């Protein structure tokens, strides 16, 4: 119990520090400058913007950069390379968030009997498919991918299954952003 308590404390501390760093990056305009400076280099710019598309703290400037890149270049290639970058960003989040949040939530849910019922629900095949779909939709949307990783933590998905899921849904999300940018720009 104490180990989980300390782990939870460190998770909260990491989130607070990362929020501080993200706010500092946004206030200094470093992130926006970085993303817009690479927009002329379609593939690299798309990849870098895709990396930043995954986190709640950097999604907004990444969406703007991806929209600008897609408007000036190929929507398909912007989505392809942006999704590759997003998968890398998601893997970092996946590594740190996936199991920890679900374990903490199970601890909070209560006693041994309650935990067994909740774990039994999470092991149902229908529940797994619903969590994959829900997590995929969150990944494709501007919502924070950290939420999707937490949901996937309940299903104990392996990285080998997570990577294609992340790629497909990030590709779809960035493709939609690019298509909207093309439609608005014309």
Query: How many strands, what sense, and barrel or not for the largest sheet?
Result: none
Shape: globular
| Counted beta strands | 0
Low-pLDDT regions = none
What fraction of the residues are assigned to beta strands by DSSP?
A: under 5%
What is the typical, i.e. mean, pLDDT? 76
- First-residue to last-residue Cα separation: 58 Å
Radius of gyration: 18 Å
Judged by helices, strands and strand pairing, the structural class is: mainly alpha
Order of helices and strands: HHHHHHHHH
What share of the residues lie within helices?
over 70%
Total number of helical segments?
A: 9
Task: Describe the model.
Helices cover 86% and strands 0% of the residues. The chain has nine helices and no strands. α7 packs antiparallel against α8. The longest helix has 35 residues, at 75-109. The N and C termini lie far apart (58 Å). The mean pLDDT is 76.
Please sum up the structure shown.
It is built from nine helices and no strands. It has helices spanning 2-27, 30-37, 42-52, 59-72, 75-109, 112-123, 125-140, 145-155, 159-185.
Q: Which helices and strands appear, and what pairs or packs with what?
A:
Blueprint lengths: L1 H26 L2 H8 L4 H11 L6 H14 L2 H35 L2 H12 L1 H16 L4 H11 L3 H27 L1
